[in-house]
Structures are given as structure tokens and as C-alpha cells.
């Protein structure tokens, strides 16, 4: 017997459709088994596919499960904003001022502000300096010299991210990943822009465990923000660009509010329809 589900594909972290990071969202997903979710995510072949479900925590407004083509994730940034956008577009009404999403990482608060959605960065599961030998191996796998790297840290809030702070934007854009040498690690690069006129403060790149560069990555930017702000490398508000070499114009907005860090951007509608399984 076939079943029909509301289906959306949205574009996250860009002011213009097709310049951010696409996300598939399947609503009313209670009828799907985990194996079906995994297979559908493999079929869409996007970096993530989300499934909207009824919450099991009364404090949450909705629940989401997040799948890559290879595995389920407890948390990811652009799926969080994209899923929230679809839930609101389908008539979702939050219980309070914030939208509260339930996912594998717990409860994630999401705010609406000037046409953008912002999630409150979840606590890091693994933080602190990246081990010296590991940092050197990662740098070599990206064709970087030790002098190119200013600092390196774990910035893992679920997916397993580690990040290198590079000396400048040009060095970041010239990095060349050897995915076999990275051996399935999720690695982020960040560098200050320095010169004015770009409209953003940092450039970011993300190399996934699946062997490709991710266009715009909310979870990585959230982890990087916690690192940069804690170490005084960035101030309380900045904009990061991502996806430049992929022909994208991702823009990630970071705001610090007291002890909380909010990470957000625009979400654009792309495809809206139904899915038959």
C-alpha cells in the first residue's frame, strides 16, 4: 500500500534560492520506519534529509530526525533551520516565544529575527585543542604547511567536527583536501577576512566524512563560534561566508546573547509538493 507525505526542499543560509545548502523535509513522518527514512535519505542524495514527527517531550513543539545518505545525526545546523521553516510554513504554532525542536541532541531553541531563523548553539560534546599529531596530519591532508595553521580545536556538537584556524582567507581557499588521508574525519577551516568590503568577517570551509565539501554548515559554524568567541578571536556578532569555491553564497550570522550563542540565516522555499512511498 502506498502512502503520500508532504515534501519540501528548501535552501538554507542564503538570501537567494540555489546559493545556499539544500535540504529535503518530509512531514507527517510517523508512518515511516527508520529503514524507510534511511533509504529515502540515501535516494535524495542531499547532505541531509529531515523527518518531522510529533514530539515525545512536552516542552518541544515538534521532533525531527536527521539523516545523511549514510547515517542518522543527533544534530545538524542547516537541517534545524530548514525543518523549522517548513514546520512554521505548514501552520506550526510554538508554545512560547521560541520554537523548541526535539532531536537526538535534546531540545534546541530557535528564534525568528528580521526574516532569519537562529538556533541556540548546543553544548560541545568534545572541545579543547586538537592533538598536535592529529593537527599536523589534518594539515598535511589539506596541503597546508604548519605555518598556515594558527590554532586547531575540537568543535564537536554531534557530527564530530574538528577545526583549523588558518592565517588568512587566501590560504583557506587554496587548501586541497585528500579525503583518503582525512580517513572519514569531519574537518572545518576558518580564517579571518581582514580586508573590508566583503560584507562578512570570516570564511569557512567544511569537509565531510563522506568525501565531499559541504556548501554551508550550521553545526560546524556553531562549534567554531563557540571556540572563537571563548578564545577572544571573534567578538559577539559576526558573519561567516561559506561555499565560495562551490559557487554558493552562504552567509551564517552569529549573535552572542549573554551566555548563549545564536547561529542563523535565511531559508528559501524551493520545491513544495507530495512524496509517494
From TrEMBL:
Native organism taxonomy: Bacteria, Pseudomonadati, Pseudomonadota, Alphaproteobacteria, Rhodobacterales
Pfam families linked to this entry: PhzC-PhzF
Family classification: Belongs to the PhzF family.
Signal peptide annotation: none
Protein name, as recorded: Phenazine biosynthesis protein PhzF family
Source organism of this protein record: Shimia sagamensis
Amino acid at each position: 500500500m502506498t502512502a503520500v507525505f508532504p515534501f519540501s526542499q528548501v535552501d538554507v543560509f542564503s538570501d537567494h534560492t540555489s546559493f545556499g545548502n539544500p535540504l529535503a523535509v518530509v512531514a507527517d513522518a510517523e508512518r515511516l520506519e527508520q529503514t524507510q527514512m534511511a533509504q529515502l535519505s540515501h535516494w535524495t542524495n542531499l547532505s541531509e534529509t529531515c523527518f518531522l514527527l510529533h514530539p515525545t517531550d512536552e516542552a518541544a513543539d515538534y521532533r525531527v530526525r536527521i539523516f545523511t545518505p549514510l547515517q542518522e545525526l543527533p544534530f545538524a545546523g542547516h537541517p534545524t533551520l530548514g525543518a523549522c521553516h517548513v514546520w512554521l510554513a505548514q501552520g506550526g504554532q510554538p508554545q512560547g516565544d521560541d520554537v523548541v525542536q526535539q532531536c537526538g541532541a535534546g531540545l534546541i531553541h530557535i528564534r525568528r529575527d528580521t526574516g532569519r531563523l537562529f538556533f541556540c548553539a548546543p553544548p560541545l560534546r568534545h572541545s579543547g585543542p586538537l592533538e598536535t599529531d592529529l593537527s599536523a596530519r589534518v594539515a598535511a591532508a589539506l596541503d597546508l604547511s604548519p605555518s598556515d595553521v594558527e590554532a586547531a580545536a575540537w568543535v564537536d556538537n554531534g557530527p564530530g567536527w574538528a577545526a583549523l584556524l588558518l592565517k588568512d582567507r587566501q590560504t583557506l581557499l587554496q587548501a586541497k583536501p585528500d579525503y583518503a588521508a582525512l580517513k572519514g574525519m569531519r574537518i572545518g577551516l576558518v580564517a579571518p577576512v581582514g580586508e573590508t568590503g566583503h560584507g562578512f568577517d570570516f570564511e569557512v570551509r567544511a569537509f565531510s566524512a563522506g568525501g565531499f565539501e559541504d556548501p554551508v554548515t550550521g553545526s560546524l559554524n556553531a562549534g567554531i563560534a563557540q571556540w572563537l568567541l571563548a578564545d577572544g578571536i571573534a567578538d559577539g556578532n559576526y558573519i561567516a561566508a561559506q561555499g565560495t569555491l562551490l559557487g554558493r553564497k552562504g552567509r551564517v550570522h552569529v549573535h552572542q546573547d549573554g551566555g548563549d550563542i545564536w547561529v542563523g540565516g535565511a531559508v528559501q522555499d524551493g520545491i513544495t509538493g507530495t512524496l509517494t512511498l
